[in-house]
Amino acid sequence: MKIRSLFISVLLPGALVVVASSVDAAETVGTAGPTPVVKTLPKALRIGTLKVTSTAAVPGETRVLEALFTSGAADTPIAGKSIAFRIEGKNGTSVPGGAVAAGAAVTDASGKAKLSFAIPELAQGAYRLTARFAGDDDTASSTGEANLGMFKGLTKLELSDLSWGTYKGESSAPFGTVFVTVRRVSDGTALAKKVRMTVNGKVWEIGGSSTQMSIPLTAPPSTWNVKAQFMGDDANQAVEASRTYTKP
Fold it and tell me: Which bin fits 185, alpha (ψ -120 to 50), beta or left (φ > 0)?
């Protein structure tokens, strides 16, 4: 009787051993066995859980974004993994471009990834803060999320001292210039915002496209009562400032 083919598969830790033979039964006595073919099985990946910490901020503030990466029922820390953070819209809020990539941080010995990040100008509301591990040779990919609460930030209006003179030294009548700046309190950044100006009862609007704004003051009169008003927007609180100037 002939045995045309014989296959024996043995599952061992980390490998699959396959023994194949094609011999006559009469030829099996005194002959060497077939050469095994060894194929490595994919290694089982560790499954991790990302727990992201919720936070709140106003535009311009620096916050530490934090995520904890662990595995198993005992929450064993997973160290040395790069965690990417991003901010997305949620429940009606939106982010320019769909999301803000905040950056990445590597988990420490306790499994924590911490990223210091300056919060951009976002409208007041609730946002999704996500953390993601892309996966590697020993750990599966994982994603976690938490809440980022955004609130309107404080602003201030600055009215400069009066600058008096002629334009580039020309012989025309001198005039005054006052510079107007809307500034974010949290980090001191100058903002390109529209400002309502009132000078001796006359009202008009300036700015909106540049952080550098100025108004001319011409004589007569020789005294100017100036009021600047930023009316606020979705991300910043309203503010106003007043100052009286006198012709030198």
Answer: alpha
Q: Cα torsion for 112, 118, 124, 126, to the nearest 10°? A: -20
Q: Rounded distance, CA 116 to CA 118, Å?
A: 7
8 Å CB contact between 193 and 121: no
What is the C-alpha separation between 236 and 42, in angstroms, rounded? 53
Compute the distance between CA of residue 56 and CA of residue 150 in angstroms, rounded to an integer.
Answer: 6
pLDDT digit string (tens) for 47-103?
999 999 999 999 999 999 999 999 999 999 999 999 999 999 998 899 988 999 999
Q: What is the DSSP string of 54-101?
A: PEEE-TT-EEEEEEEEEETTTTEE--S-EEEEEEEE-TT---TTSEEE
Residue 169: partners with Cβ closer than 8 Å, 6 or more residues away: none
Task: Report how far residue 58's alpha carbon sits from residue 237's, in angstroms, rounded to the nearest whole number.
Answer: 11
CB contact at 8 A, 51 and 144: yes
CA distances from 182 to 118, 178, 235, 236 (A): 19, 13, 13, 11
Report the alpha-carbon distance of residue 217 to residue 162 in Å, rounded: 9
Which residues 6+ apart lie within 8 Å of 9 measured at CB? 16, 17, 18, 19
Residue 148 has phi, psi (to 5 degrees) of -120, 115
Residues 112 and 81: their CA atoms lie apart, in Å, by 10
The model's pTM: 0.78
Tally of helices (H runs) and strands (E runs) in the chain: 0, 21
